[in-house]
Amino acid sequence: MSSKTSITILGATGSIGVSTLDVISRHLDQYTVFALTANTHVEKLLAQCLQFKPHYAVMVDEASAQQLSQLLQGTVAEETKVLQGAKALEEVASSEHVDYVMAAIVGAAGLLPSLAAAQSGKRVLLANKEALVMSGQLFMDAIRDNHAELLPIDSEHNAIFQSMPVGQNLRGVEKILLTGSGGPFRNREIDTLHAVTVAEAVAHPNWDMGKKISVDSATMMNKGLEVIEACWLFAVNEKQIQVVVHPQSTIHSMVSYVDGSVIAQLGNPDMRTPIAYSLAWPERMDAGVESLDFFDLARLDFEQPNFERFPCLRLAYEAHRAGGYASIALNASNEIAVAAFLQGEILFTQIPQMIEHCLADSPSGTPTHINEILQQDSHSREKALAWKLDQA
Ligand code: NAD
Ligand code: MG
């Protein structure tokens, strides 16, 4: 076997997947790609297979898998085996030949393969925050019980990880300062938010990301999901997390200590930094990212979050306080709401309305079994879809 670190990238064709491959391409002496996965994007996965020649390429969609398989014949990557279906995602995430798994599928679809990586003791590079929001306790237990390693890819959580005490304990920590840009509508008149277009919502001022997380950033649900994510990752409660709106996205988050010290991680807004950090940890390696030029930084601004402008942020705090079932309902209804908004079926301001409706009767407590999690997820999706039909 090769002495290189072998990696599976779940969601290889997405924004995080592409950045991960960019970092890996700079360090092919250290890393080798075991499997690449995608939903339907055949051409992009084909190009990645030709470049990285993985052992496996997984396409969830059957027709896409067949197409990819044909296109690979007679190429430099003809040895790459094409697998099809959601189950295959779990197989390539848990294979004994894999060391690290980049979990970069968007949404609940990433839960089972991310969990499979945790259960098989991998280093899990977690971008898929929705998985942790849905399964927090179960996921963290799986990491601990199987001696897996969990490295946060979300830039804020990666910054917090870097700013925490050695050993990632809470000794001397007063609170976590979770920064967020405030998205494209930080200053827009609140009474015009109903008229927000899809193009306006996905145009993030600082980060270039997938559509779903871009809309989440515009509603600040992204920050809400990140509050819950931070609670699980760092074993704190939501009262120990202060959201700080910081429009320049230069400080990626901070940890405040009881002695008055505040430790922050700064950098250009480029996901290759947290990706390279998590691959190389505890070492450091070149990420292809330019270092920050302090003489170029005009200024750094900070504001309180506005819960009236961003009701999704309030709903996320409420859901986390209410327990695991409510967090699953929050995530599921948000996924349905964002998809409906992107399809032009509901208004931007109806996103929090749909979520609030679904949170209203979610059970109290936290599920302990994966089937309970999946059941609540599908129940909340149905409820959200029914609400949408009622509005039409
Ligand atoms: P994206 O939409 O660009 O890519 C999503 C990837 O998931 C694609 O490869 C797609 O093929 C795959 N996928 C989609 N639906 C699937 C399904 N049903 N089954 C299997 N695979 C599926 O998304 P992204 O922006 O790369 O974000 C990925 C994850 O990382 C999200 O959870 C997001 O919140 C998180 N994240 C992203 C960024 C960023 O800068 N893009 C930053 C922090 C966290
Ligand atoms: Mg983030």
Structural features, described:
This protein has 392 residues and is α/β, with parallel strands linked by helices. It folds into 3 domains: 5-152, Rossmann fold; 153-182 and 236-305, no CATH class; 190-199 and 214-219 and 308-392, Rna Polymerase Sigma Factor, Chain: A (Orthogonal Bundle). It is 45% helix and 15% strand. It is built from 15 helices and 11 strands. It has helices spanning 15-25, 42-52, 62-72, 86-94, 111-119, 129-145, 155-163, 198-202, 211-219, 221-234, 272-280, 311-322, 324-342, 350-359, 370-391; strands spanning 5-10, 31-38, 56-59, 81-84, 100-103, 123-126, 149-152, 173-180, 241-245, 251-257, 262-266. The strands form 2 sheets. Strands 4-3-2-1-5-6-7 form a 7-stranded parallel sheet, with helices on both faces. A 4-stranded mixed sheet has the order 9-8-10-11, covered by helices on one side. Helix 6 (129-145) packs parallel to helix 10 (221-234), helix 9 (211-219) crosses helix 13 and helix 12 runs antiparallel to helix 13. The N and C termini lie far apart (58 Å). The structure holds nicotinamide-adenine-dinucleotide and magnesium ion (MG).
Record field, number of beta strands = 11
Main beta-sheet strand count, sense and barrel state: 7 strands, parallel
Number of domains: 3
CATH topology of the largest domain: Rossmann fold
Roughly what percent helix? 40-55%
**Associated small molecules:** nicotinamide-adenine-dinucleotide, magnesium ion
